[in-house]
Design brief:
Blueprint lengths: L1 H47 L6 H16 L4 E3 L1 H11 L2 E4 L2 E6 L2 E7 L4 H4 L7 E5 L2 E2 L5 H8 L6 E7 L7 E6 L1 E4 L3 E6 L4 E6 L6 H11 L5 E5 L8 H9 L6 E7 L6 E4 L11 E5 L6 H11 L4 E4 L7 E7 L7 E10 L15 E2 L17 H14 L17 E2 L1 H5 L2 H17 L1
Parallel strand pairs: 10-20, 11-12, 12-15, 15-16, 16-19
Antiparallel strand pairs: 1-18, 2-9, 3-4, 5-6, 5-7, 7-8, 10-11, 13-14, 13-18, 17-18
Helix pairs in contact: 1-2, 7-8
Length: 431
């Protein structure tokens, strides 16, 4: 009986091994067939395409198409794009100062960066870009759109925009500039012991700027952290920001298909600089790193979140050079972010604790573009066909540079005013 069982075990083991080898062999054959198909298509394009394309250009186009088909945030960067990305993270670059993305298949403004030509021209988060100069953006790739918006400093570019609640498309003529971003602004509010801190983007100078602001205002009673229209940036700066206000616990975690990409990031007691009551302001232009900061502070019950729902970008991208000289790279989505409570940001965003709309005339309305996806492209095509007038929109009002926000300025900003009133209540309760 034992011999029979042993023989059966050997047969099963051999059968399992043969089956595994067969599957592995089929998988390898499938890979070879797929690679052969790709090589054949590239060779056919090189030989027969109407225009004379070099193999290098064909491969670049192939890579660009592949990355854009994966998701909205993966992309291929050629030499100029990779160089521009490196400059952007240092906080100084040339262009309009606008962050864009593909939403429902159309080119959409995620956020104009504070203090840049786009923001001064009154470009708003949620605007749909119909045309760049004379070229329609319908069916245009994100990389091509970004390339069109870049150009020589002091040259002008014309954007045709669709904005919610506007009857006609809006024309914005914007002059490209060398953009030096001051990522952290700190002011007191109307001579009260409230510190207002605005973070425009999470470049490599943010945590350093925040520490300086907090150490310079030690006698404050509360903090308003403004993350509105902040398109995100560096993960380590978002983590470092939360660490300044949270003593312990998870700040954010990331989970992907490969275990080595799964990570958790924690707050440290020694890194905490302030335990004062906080309010965080967010809106539809708050994305990525901004959502990590506001979501983590919300989950830790460390701050009251005021404003409107955020953009909803909760995926992790890494930059991977693809040549020996490290002059070209791909931006690849490898994981998703999860907040301390375990909830995801991706496509959901951060829901504020207190809903507050921009402007003085507060109307309860959906902050999303009120079109169904199935109707979107058709609607935009009609808009393009009808567009035949030029309009430059209204001028943007700037708050004068000062170390203090006045009561009059406070009343001009409904979300900030709401946040300050909530913060006053938190201060009173904490006392």
């Amino acid at each position: 009986m034992k011999k029979i069982l042993l023989a059966l075990f050997v047969v099963l083991a051999l059968s399992s091994s043969l089956e595994a080898n067969s599957k592995a062999k089929q998988s390898e054959q499938s890979r070879y067939k797929s690679l052969a198909k790709l090589t054949k298509v590239i060779g056919t394009v090189e030989k027969y395409y109407v225009d004379d394309l070099t193999l290098d250009k064909i491969v670049s186009k192939s890579l660009k198409g592949l990355m854009e088909e994966l998701d909205a945030h993966s992309s291929y960067m050629d030499k100029s794009e990779f160089k521009a990305m490196n400059v952007l993270t240092r906080g100084e670059f040339g262009g309009l100062g606008i962050t864009v993305g593909m939403k429902d298949g159309v080119l959409t403004v995620i956020s104009p960066i504070y203090g840049t030509p786009a923001q001064k021209a009154d470009v708003k988060a949620g605007d749909i870009i119909l045309k760049i100069n004379s070229k329609s953006t319908l069916n245009m790739s994100l990389g091509d759109a970004v390339s069109l918006m870049r150009g020589k400093v002091n040259t002008s570019i014309k954007l045709v925009l669709i904005r919610k609640d506007m009857q006609k498309p809006i024309v914005k003529i914007i002059k490209r500039k060398i953009i030096k971003i001051k990522s952290v602004y700190a002011k007191t509010i109307d001579n009260q012991k409230i510190l207002y801190i605005r973070i425009t983007s999470f470049d490599q100078k943010v945590v350093r700027g925040l520490k300086k602001a907090l150490k310079s205002h030690r006698n404050i009673q509360g903090i308003v952290l403004d993350l509105r229209n902040n398109p995100g940036g560096l993960l380590n700066q978002a983590i470092g920001t939360v660490d300044l206000f949270v003593k312990h616990g998870v700040i954010v975690s990331q989970k992907g298909r490969i275990k080595q990409n799964n990570k958790k990031f924690y707050a440290h007691y020694m890194g905490t600089l302030s335990s004062k009551p906080m309010v965080v302001l967010v809106n539809g232009g708050s994305a990525s790193a901004s959502e990590i900061v506001s979501g983590a502070l919300q989950d830790h019950k460390r701050a009251v979140i005021v404003g409107t729902r955020t953009f909803g970008k909760g995926s992790v991208q890494v930059i991977l050079p693809i040549n020996d000289a490290k002059t070209e790279a791909i931006r690849l989505t490898i994981a998703r972010y999860y907040l301390p409570s375990g909830r995801t940001i991706q496509a959901k965003g951060i829901i504020p604790d207190v809903l507050s709309y921009a402007g003085l005339a507060v109307k309860a309305r959906d902050s999303e573009f009120l079109l169904r996806e199935s109707e979107l492209k058709k609607h935009l095509t009609v808009k393009l066909d009808k567009f035949d007038k030029k309009t430059h929109g209204r001028k943007h009002k700037h708050i004068k540079k000062s170390s203090t926000i006045t009561q009059a300025q406070l009343l001009d900003d409904n979300q900030l005013n709401t946040g300050v009133n909530i913060l006053k209540s938190l201060i009173r309760v904490s006392k």
